[in-house]
């Protein structure tokens, strides 16, 4: 799938609200992530980061560039774009924002809004070591293959919840990042 086909599929389908989310009895800390999609050799890739080990929340986990909404951010898109620039050097004018998925609530008290965007041009990664340990890409086709997306059940306070996970080479993508990838794949793979 190339950028053109992805854009058509993304825009033709109504956004689903069927995202596996943790229950929340309080308003979580609002955050946003950018789902940067890069085309290489007419093949789309998702750009992912590995969080620095010294971070307080989710150290070492695979994630999308992003972070908490600041008071000066006007919306989730602005937050995601600002965080991507800070974390990996991806400038806002080098992305085409396609849309926003529904917010995903986590057990750790965050409400994360995923922002889907195509990267227009190749760019030089400038990793902020204070937030990011590594940055890498995975072909979108790998994730679209249902055999590479998995779920297990997790019990918390006597209730059963889905936990998504996706092993890729020596990486283990799980939790909210995997749930967002699963939602993206289900959305663009619909016919």
From TrEMBL:
CDD domains, alphabetized: NUDIX_CoAse_Nudt7
Gene3D superfamilies for the chain: Nucleoside Triphosphate Pyrophosphohydrolase
Pfam families: NUDIX
Cofactor or coenzyme needed: Mg(2+); Mn(2+)
Keywords: Hydrolase, Magnesium, Manganese, Metal-binding
Domain Nudix hydrolase: start-end pairs: 28-161
InterPro entries: CoAse, NUDIX_hydrolase-like_dom_sf, NUDIX_hydrolase_dom, NUDIX_hydrolase_NudL_CS
Lineage: superkingdom: Bacteria
NCBIfam families reported for this sequence: PRK10707.1
Similarity-based family: Belongs to the Nudix hydrolase family. PCD1 subfamily.
Name of the protein: Coenzyme A pyrophosphatase
Lineage start: Bacteria, Pseudomonadati, Pseudomonadota, Gammaproteobacteria, Alteromonadales
Recorded name of the encoding gene: yeaB
């Amino acid at each position: 799938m190339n950028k053109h086909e992805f854009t058509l599929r993304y825009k033709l389908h109504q956004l689903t609200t069927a995202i596996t989310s943790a229950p929340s009895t309080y308003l979580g800390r609002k955050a946003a992530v950018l789902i940067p999609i890069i085309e290489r050799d007419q093949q789309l890739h998702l750009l992912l980061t590995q969080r620095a080990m010294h971070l307080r929340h989710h150290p070492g986990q695979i994630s999308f560039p992003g972070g908490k909404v600041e008071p000066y951010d006007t919306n989730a898109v602005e937050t995601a774009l600002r965080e991507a620039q800070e974390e990996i050097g991806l400038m806002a004018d080098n992305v085409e924002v396609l849309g926003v998925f529904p917010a995903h609530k986590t057990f750790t008290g965050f409400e994360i809004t995923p922002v889907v965007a195509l990267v227009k041009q190749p760019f030089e990664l400038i990793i902020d070591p204070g937030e990011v340990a590594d940055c890498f890409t995975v072909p979108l086709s790998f994730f679209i293959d249902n055999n590479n997306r998995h779920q297990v059940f997790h019990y918390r306070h006597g209730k059963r919840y889905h936990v998504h996970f996706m092993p890729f080479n020596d990486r283990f993508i799980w939790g909210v990042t995997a749930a967002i990838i699963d939602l993206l794949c289900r959305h663009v793979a619909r016919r």
